[in-house]
Amino acid sequence: MRQIARKQFNSLLINIKQYPLVCIYGPDGFGKRTAVHAFLHNRKEKYTWIDMYKKDRKLLKELLMKECDKNDIIILNQYRNHVVDSQIIEICTQGEHSCRIIILATDIPSFFNAKLQKWILMIPVTILRFQYADIQKLAAVNHISIEEREIRQILRDTCGWTIGVHALLEEYGAVGAIAADMKLYALFDMYIYRRLPPAQRQSLSILAIPEHFNVQLIEALCADTQIMKVLVWMMNFHWFVHSDRMTRRFTYTPVFRSFLYDKFLSNEKNPSRIYRTIADYYESSGDILNCLRQLSLLKDYRKILQLIELYEGANFVDYDIELMRNIYQMIPIELYQEYPYAWLRVIMDSFNNLQDMFHGTQLLEKFLSALEQGKLHGDESLLRGEVELILAYSRYNNLHEMSRYFKRSKTLLRDQTSRINNAEIITTLGSPHNLFLYHQKPGDIQRLVNILRKDLHYYQEITNHSNGGLKEQAVAEQLLESGRFTESIHAAWEAYYIAEHYRQKWICVSSLFTIGRSAYHLRDQVMLQYVLQRLTDVKKKETLPPLLAEIDLAQAYLYILTDRCEAVAEWIREGREGDILQGAVLYSSIVYGMYLIKTRNYAKLHVVASLLESHAHERKQLFATIYALLFQCILLKEKDDQPALRRTINRLIYISQPDGIMTTILELGKDVFLACSEHWKWRKLYRLLEAHRDYNSYGLTERELELVDYVLKGYSRKEMAEASGLKVNTIGSYMKKLYRKLNIHNRTELKERFIK
C-alpha cells in the first residue's frame, strides 16, 4: 500500500539539526520507522540505522562512538534502558560530537529529565495518529473508494493506530467490507498481548468483563500490581484505553475489549469467581445495572429478582434494553412467585419499553392465575391496582382506554403510589413530539387534549407526578401544528417549567423542541439558537441513552429545517436505529427521511416512505402517515407524476384538515404545492399556509388569527359574525385592532400582504 506524507511529523523532525538528540516515543505500530525513513530519504540525508535489540550490549558503546565520529545521523531503533544511556547524555551535553541521534522507543527514556530538555526534541507518536482527512487521503492515493461511514468506523476501531488503519483500509479495498475483529485481533495479539508478562495479560483480559472500571475495581480484580502502569501508559497515547476525568473511570474501545474478553474466556478456568467479585463491587457502589449484568452471567436469577424488587421503579431497562430483555426471558417462572412486585415490573417493561407483547401477556396470565390461587404474598387490592396500571400500558396508543385503566388503578391502589412505576419512567417513549404518539384518526386532536386535561391527574397521582407538564405540552403542540406559533411558545414554556419542577426531562426536551419549531416559523433566530444550545447543555449532563437519542432527534429536525445537515447526529445521518425506544422508531424514520430530502437521496427516501406508511397504519399513528404522504409527494414531484401527486395531496388534505394541521405540511410541502400551481385549490392552500406563517409573526391572538382566516376566505362582516358567534359591531372593533397591529388600513391591504 502506498504511503502518504506525514506533514505535521515532518514539520517537527525538520528541526533535527538544532538538537543533538531526537526522541520519538510511543507504542509500536504507529509507523515511527516508516516516517523517519521517508523523511531522511526525501531530504537525501545520510544516516546509520542500528537495531538495538539485535546488538550485543557490550559492543553498543564501541559501535555508537564509532558511528558518532563519522559526523552522521544515527538512528537507535527499539531503544530501551541500555548501557549507552550515559554516552548519549555525554554526546548531548558536551558538544564534542557533531552527530545527531534519533531514538525510537516505546516510552520516554529513563535518563530524560528537565536538565536535558534544551538538548532533546521529544516527539510522541500521537502526532502520527491518523485522522479522518488522513484516511481519506490514504484511500485516494491507493485508489480506494470509501464512504464517510466506513472511514469513521476505521477511526473508532483503530484509534488512528497506523498499522490498524492500513490493515482495515487494505481489506476494504480488497473485499468492500470491514471485519475489524479479524484483522485487528491479530494485531492486538502481536503488538500488545504477547509482549506483556502472563500476569499483566490476565489482568488486562479480566478488566474487559465490566463496561468500565476504576482504581478500586482494578485492585479488587487484579493480582498484578503493575497493571495500572500499563493502563496509564496506553491511556497517555489514547491507545485503546480511555479515561473520564469526571467519573475517574477507564474504558476499553469496543473492538479491543471484545478481543480481551475472548482471551478471558479462553484462558480463565474459574470465571464465576470473577463475575461474583465484580457483581459484589457494583452492588456495594450502587451501580445496580452493572451488578445485574454480572449476575446474569452467573445465572443468579434469585438475586436479580431481589434487586429489582428492592429498587422498585428503577428504570434499568431504559439504560440497557437488550440486557434486561435477555434477563427477563431467562428467569424461571417458579421464581417469580416469591417476588410479586419484581414480577409485575418485568411484565410492565415487557408491555412498555420492550414492546414484547407476547412475553408480557404470557407472564400476566400466569401472574393473575397465581394471584387467584393465593400463591402471592402481598395485599391483593394493591397488586391488582398495579395490574390495572400495566393494562393501561398494554392499550398504548389508545389514550381513551388508557385513561379508564388509570382511574381503576388509582381506586385499587387506595391513593398509594405505584411500586413498579415512578416519575423517572420515560413517558415520551423517546419521541420529542407527544401528540405524535397518540393521534390515531383525523379530527381527534382536540379530544386527546381534553382527555389529558381531564384525566391525566389520575396517572400522575399514582406515579409520583410522572408526565408532569404533559397536558400543557399537548396544548403547545396543538397550537404549533395549527400555526399559532406565538401562543405555542407561551404554552410550551409553561409545560417546560412544570416538567422541570417534577424532573420530567423528556417532556422538557419536547417543550424545547416545540419552542424551536415555533421560533423557526416566526423567523426568530435568537430564540432558535437558544433552544439548540439549551438542548446541547442538557445532553452534556445526561447519560440515559434514550433521552440522549430524543435530544438528537429534536436537534436534527431543527438543523434540517435550517439547512445545517452537517450538524445532524451521525447515527441519524447513517439511518441507524441508535439507542431509541420503540415509541421513537417512526419519529427517527421521519427525521432520517427529512435528511434524505435535504441531501436529495431519493432512492433511500422511497424505501423510508413506503415503510413509514406501512408502520404508521399498523400502529395507528396519523402524524406518521402525514409525513409518509409528504415524502411520497416529494418523490412524485421529482418524477413529475402530476396525476399521482394530485391524488396523494388529496389524501394529505383529507387527513390533516380536520385537525387544522398546517405546520408539518408547511415545513415539507412548499415545493409540492408549487408543483401543482396550475390547480388553484392547491396553490390557494399553500398561500394560506404561508399566510399563517407570516401573520403569526405579528403576535396576533387566537381570535385575531381566526378573523384573518375569514378575511382570506372572502367572508363578509356579517358572515364572520355568524361563524364566530360575535356581534357585527364586535367584529368591527377586532378588525380595527388587527389593522393597527399589522399597520394596514383595510381588507385589500391585508390580502395584498398575505396572498401574493
Q: Which features does this protein show?
A:
mainly alpha; Rossmann fold; five-stranded parallel sheet; two-stranded antiparallel ribbon; 40 helices; 5% strand; globular
Q: Hey, roughly how much beta strand do the residues contain? A: under 5%
Q: What's the end-to-end separation, in Å? A: 62 Å
Unreliable stretches: none
Give the class-level CATH name of the domain at 7-128.
Alpha Beta
Major sheet details: 5 strands, parallel
Globally, the shape reads globular
Helix content: 55-70%
As for the CATH topology of the domain at 7-128, it is Rossmann fold
CATH architectural name of the domain at 7-128: 3-Layer(aba) Sandwich
Mean pLDDT: 86
Strand order of the largest sheet: 2-3-4-1-5
The total of beta strands comes to 7
In short:
The protein has 756 residues and is mainly α. It has a domain at 7-128: Rossmann fold.
Overall description:
- By secondary structure, this protein is mainly alpha-helical.
- It has a domain at about 5-130: Rossmann fold, CATH 3.40.50.300.
- About 65% of the residues lie in helices and about 5% in strands.
- The chain is built from 40 helices and 7 strands.
- It has a 5-stranded parallel sheet, with helices on both faces.
- It is globular and about 110 Å long.
